[in-house]
Amino acid sequence: MTPGRDRPPTVLSELREKARTRLDPVHWDFFEGGAGTETALAENERAFRRLALLPRVLRGAGPADTAVTLLGDRAELPVVVSPTAFHRLAHPDGELATARATAAAGTVLITSMAATTAVAEVTAAARSVRADAAVWFQLYLQPAPGVTEELVRRAEQAGCGALVVTADSPVFGRRARDDHNGFHDLPAGLTAANMRDLPGAPPGGTRDIAMSPALSWDDLRRLRAGTRLPIVLKGVLHPDDARRAADEGVAALLVSNHGGRQLDAAPATVDALPAVVAAVGDRLPVLLDGGVRTGSDVVIALALGAAAVGIGRPALWGLAAEGEDGVAQVLAELRADVAQVMTLCGARDRGDLSRGQVVVRGQGTAPC
Amino acid sequence: MTPGRDRPPTVLSELREKARTRLDPVHWDFFEGGAGTETALAENERAFRRLALLPRVLRGAGPADTAVTLLGDRAELPVVVSPTAFHRLAHPDGELATARATAAAGTVLITSMAATTAVAEVTAAARSVRADAAVWFQLYLQPAPGVTEELVRRAEQAGCGALVVTADSPVFGRRARDDHNGFHDLPAGLTAANMRDLPGAPPGGTRDIAMSPALSWDDLRRLRAGTRLPIVLKGVLHPDDARRAADEGVAALLVSNHGGRQLDAAPATVDALPAVVAAVGDRLPVLLDGGVRTGSDVVIALALGAAAVGIGRPALWGLAAEGEDGVAQVLAELRADVAQVMTLCGARDRGDLSRGQVVVRGQGTAPC
Amino acid sequence: MTPGRDRPPTVLSELREKARTRLDPVHWDFFEGGAGTETALAENERAFRRLALLPRVLRGAGPADTAVTLLGDRAELPVVVSPTAFHRLAHPDGELATARATAAAGTVLITSMAATTAVAEVTAAARSVRADAAVWFQLYLQPAPGVTEELVRRAEQAGCGALVVTADSPVFGRRARDDHNGFHDLPAGLTAANMRDLPGAPPGGTRDIAMSPALSWDDLRRLRAGTRLPIVLKGVLHPDDARRAADEGVAALLVSNHGGRQLDAAPATVDALPAVVAAVGDRLPVLLDGGVRTGSDVVIALALGAAAVGIGRPALWGLAAEGEDGVAQVLAELRADVAQVMTLCGARDRGDLSRGQVVVRGQGTAPC
Amino acid sequence: MTPGRDRPPTVLSELREKARTRLDPVHWDFFEGGAGTETALAENERAFRRLALLPRVLRGAGPADTAVTLLGDRAELPVVVSPTAFHRLAHPDGELATARATAAAGTVLITSMAATTAVAEVTAAARSVRADAAVWFQLYLQPAPGVTEELVRRAEQAGCGALVVTADSPVFGRRARDDHNGFHDLPAGLTAANMRDLPGAPPGGTRDIAMSPALSWDDLRRLRAGTRLPIVLKGVLHPDDARRAADEGVAALLVSNHGGRQLDAAPATVDALPAVVAAVGDRLPVLLDGGVRTGSDVVIALALGAAAVGIGRPALWGLAAEGEDGVAQVLAELRADVAQVMTLCGARDRGDLSRGQVVVRGQGTAPC
Hints:
Four copies of one chain form a homotetramer. Chain A has 368 residues and is of the alpha/beta class.
């Protein structure tokens, strides 16, 4: 950036550029790319730019309190780390670095079933930093007998606080970058650690993660019957599915289009949020991920009724660029920015934000 | 594409670029260009980008079944090959290659009256691959006496399954590229084979295809009276015309703006589809062509009520790039992508898709 | 244009580029530029691109009849030549060339009060080509006593068919290009010929054209009382002004923003047209100018209720590029294109077009 | 600008470019930049481009009278100079130049609490040019005891006509350019002169300006009780806050997003104006600043109900480029342009403008 000429980089954009430089371009593409034409990917960010926040003034709110409570876990900021695969591909410290930084920031890490570090090690790393650190386990329901049960048992034993069941993946996404780069397997030395020693796995080897279009609400019901952990359903965009999920007793929803990596035609998540909140917002907490890059994005989602938001790629940018410290920088920056935006909106906490503060740019009316 | 820097090519975009390289630029312009300012051409694609699909989750749909039944013919995918002229200009194998690849893919070829291969040879090529291959014949109603009748007779004898009457061409389109390039006649050695030996044609020569603004519903009624073949009316965009067509007993409609090659001011076909479906969707099947490039485009059209869609230029890209195999690649890619998108939408088949799953990006509401 | 790579030029765009090359850049800027930020100028064209035409099919319309009747004058095409100043600045033959080409095309020329050729010479040139050629006289009401009266007398004596009173110019437009280029006076040898020998003019010299914010409906009423010619009010955009004009007995309206040369914040004329037609379309003919470049633009305006449209800059492009023949090419091209678009819309004549055929792109609904 | 090729510069754009050249790039960034992604900054200008003005014709309005009365002060144009910090950073003459030019133009200067010249010197400079020059004092309510009171006393003694209380700044904006450039302190020799010798300041030194999220309507009420000056509340965008402000007895509102320097997610001010006017327009005058660059922008705001508008950066461009004369040029240009646009709209004065004259481009309807 040349002073006087261009807009300068931000904390996140600088980490992103550093990550791009450090990573093998093929791995960068894996993390950064999306499905198909990458329309959903681009729209996730663009949709936030179409919305504006009406500030309130002179409310005497005092310093912003960014903390929220999520399924009984306190998060110091309304931003959790959404599940993403293969953190050791981004940085040698992998999920351990992410877990320590997230725990130190005082928020929830949703560790991926496709992590390169086993869930027990992830929770241990988080708890080494903060005794009550919250880690949730992301789960693809597995059609093979006994596999899901074993994964749930491990998550429970590791002390996870919730199961985040991904519902948007009845099949793997078609990612043109990975196809083009021929990227389909982890490099030697990295494994999907949670998939080791499962029923049906080769001795000492890992099972592949299966995605199945046969999965149904029945499978979710069976899962729920077999665990004491609350279930967060991830990938819900249609209000009718949100209602069904509430009826089925899930504890929370995560409005997500899988970061634009599954259905390329999916709407931006913040475009889908209002209808989901209208459908079930009074029954259970609704989270959102996809395209969140600034404090404004977070506060817009909160004002539209989200209990919290998740970040995916930004955490990976921090991790790839500077390891644990990079993830810490991302979360610190977002926390500061959320506090700033809340204060500028006249809000002390999430409860002071309301849907009437969100307007569509150029229309002056609330999104629908 | 450089890994880490750009979005990679897709199967279709690579075939398109290869076709552009292989073809005489003047012939490329003939296939690729449109009428006037090429606004309709560009809008056909752009309009799909304005729409999004709301996926449904956990429906236990199982693997997607992309097959549809069209006028009694089974198509393995809801994508037919729409009529385009002069396939031998794209590749020496011409319509024979297109017919074999389309038959092998198990879907319908609508062969053009302006083909460089006679309809009987086209159907024979298709049936050499699959005994029950479906070929429909595209027809411009001819004002000269006896010509239409003879064409219909040939289509019937060739075993065509339907007549696709083009209604959007009371006059030739004004194509600036062709005018600029001086492209008005087929090169030596190529002929509009269906127009040979017709009443009024010079001995051994071909009649020109006539387009007439005098044609009316009366002409269509006469055609219908003289054939046992079902009639698909192509080029309908106005709901009042759709109603009239249904009243006249046509078997199906094809919502089309002739690939942006006739009325440059025409709306994108997917913008026009909902009103046509609302008008007659319960009375007869409605197909659509124009701008279909991905599985998402196909599924959006199906969810809005289309029975199937047609592709024009993509088949020509495949043909020009790699002959029969190129067409096969295009159809295989679209079938795979349709299956992928249906599965991601929670749909086993077309019947599981509904209009409520289509939303306008940035609005969260259904298109009208 | 390279075949296979770019969209080719059109008749109008080629004439425009040729004009740009031939003209002194300062004079090009005078003709081509607009007021202020040139937003109104750009929007006039852009607004047409936002609209689409729904074609009708199989109506048996036959060849299109592009002729219309305007205040009793027959025009072979629904395109008149709107008034523009200083044609001799564009070409040595000036208004004489424009008049001959327009008469030959069989349509109306609205000659400007700021012409470089006197109205009597203009009408004579037109009538030398076609005995009943229609020429209307554009008039700025002059506050000085007797001036307007003398101008009206000359227009009547010259055989003009109507007075086109420009209402959008209570003051000269602020044109950044002309200010920057220091262009404020006609070069030596050119004069505003209609302003010669008027009351108060220096002997043998010309009066300046006055624009006055004091002009009111009273002045228009006085004008009307003193002439037998019908009055067309030009520059009306607000429906309340349209109603008032109808009440005042004007014969027709010309919806215009002066080609974007006066109020830079004015809406595109085709955006303003529907409300004006809704207000007075049943009482008097409504014409439109501004941004008309293609037959589609013309037919969109007609379908929205315009009786005809005017072109300004396109006629000047033709004139500057190739004199009389260039103007003839522009009118021939537009006539052919209008006929083409009407036929593609299923219309034999203007009466077959209806507002229901116009939709907003991406909305599927009529403009309001 | 090359004649015949590009749009030429305007008075304001030329001054802006000259300012950019003259200023230290770091200082340019301070004046020109905004918060966060600079979305609010860009939208302020863009939103005006989305709106159009419907002119009225033949109203006999006569020459435009651009004068307005604001809290009893006459302004020769409906454009005041909004408060901006550190004018001596832009030009050695600083606020004295701004004050003289603004007084000479006959309008109101809102001098900033963060000025580099004390308010008494600013008012003296203004009055040296025009005895009744109006200067208002912009105030951030200070939480420390006695500070606000002393500032108010000084403003009163200096003869300010109003207190403009900034309500949009419970915290400093996060400006990426300044952070990147490391610009956080005034260069040696410049001070925030109004902050000198205040309670709690170091001897001979200045207090920092405090921003506090604890400030509330109670603080405003105390302020009002302690001064005879009318209070203008600046930074209101939400209609509920506008209503509350009216209930609290403020004399006027200034709809502002602080030039895009505080809440990056804020809507464009002209998008927020209609709802504020609808809420309180009949109870107190509503002003607007943000993105005003042309006479059209001013008149659009007036037609939507603003009593006047403020300019921030344009005055700084003039000041940095050419000192007092530059500011004078900016105000003269805007006055001339406002008069031009009002006349073209058929308005003699602000009272002749109405909301019905404002339409959204491409929609033909009024903004909401």
